[in-house]
Amino acid sequence: MIKISKNAKNPSFEWTNFYMKFADKLLEYKNDRTNLIKLIDKVFDKSNLKNPFMENGELFDDICPFTVFSAFNRQIKMNNRITILKNIKEIFEIDEIVPSEFAGVTFVPPLFTRFFPRKSQRKEDDIPNLWDLFEAAINYADNPSL
Questions:
Q1: Are 61 and 84 in contact (CB under 8 A)?
Q2: What is the arithmetic mean of pLDDT over 11-31?
């Protein structure tokens, strides 16, 4: 459901504040991705859901922020999405209300949850480049005159 403020020219979406706060928090892990992978695994464990970020039975050895967002922007049941976000809020200490509506969010097909090639096929700079893009997007959102 889209909520429209009486004073707003544009509709506001319930999920945007949480997503922005999580994006900012995620950026803190740009150079600590091993720990990020462990925290994401903890989110799925606490959610009683299978971690989609596995390759050959092992946790990914690296991850990009867009792939992290696909954890809850996949085509999954709404209650699973909300459970994942509740656990992200707790584990990453996000000071924002967990959304329950996702109007306007584009969901990723379940088979395409990673935004980089398999380890055997990717180049050394594939994942760092995605982090740089993510950081540039956040910086631009914070200061569009860049």
A1: no
A2: 91
